[in-house]
Amino acid sequence: MDDSELQAKLKQLEADLNSSSPPPTPHRTEKPVSQPQSWGQRLKGNALLPVYLVAIPWAQEIVDQAVFGGTWNLPLHPRSVAGIPGIFLSAISHSGFAHLIGNTIGFLIFSWLILAKSRRDYWITLLIGWLGGGVVAWLLGPSSVHGLSGVVYTLFGYLLCIGWLERRVVPLLISVFVLINYSYFIFGMFPTQPMVAWWGHLFGFFLGILAAYGVYREPGKRG
Fold this sequence. Notes:
Layout lengths: L2 H17 L19 H29 L17 H5 L7 H19 L3 H22 L8 H18 L2 H14 L15 H18 L8
Helix pairs in contact: 2-4, 4-6, 5-6, 5-8, 6-7, 6-8
């Protein structure tokens, strides 16, 4: 092979190398970025949350009346081993639809007012009222009790107190609104009506104040 043929082959090899496309790079799939919820979506979720929660005692009462004739009660019996489940279950048990309707109205209104301020505060206050109220009633209550009213009074106590602690516009307006429109709840904490567990209301109210002191933010701090 002479020099001309060798040079021709080298040029042909160089042309082949230049014309060949580079190997494809592996394609990376990027995970879609989750979009933050809009204000309307947050409002809808907060508005429905108490409705979902109160549906539990409504389901229990419907089954109780339709199947058991009003005898399927889940009361809390103070200082009794048999009454311990009532710490968790007594709030979803009621003595009839009139009892349940009264508690439902207060529960929904007070829940929505707290959620207008903070979902975090709502969950903390709700759990303190539900479980803390059950424990206190089991330890100190004079008689058996059931119903959601203790939790309602915990929400009420929080709402009355939180505005004066934080001294910010929204919490203060909420506290003033509750004081003006629902101050009659205070009479439920006194033994003025027979067959009403006023002491459960009183326990719940003070637990609500305790919850407000536990979750409030110092004036001037954002959160």
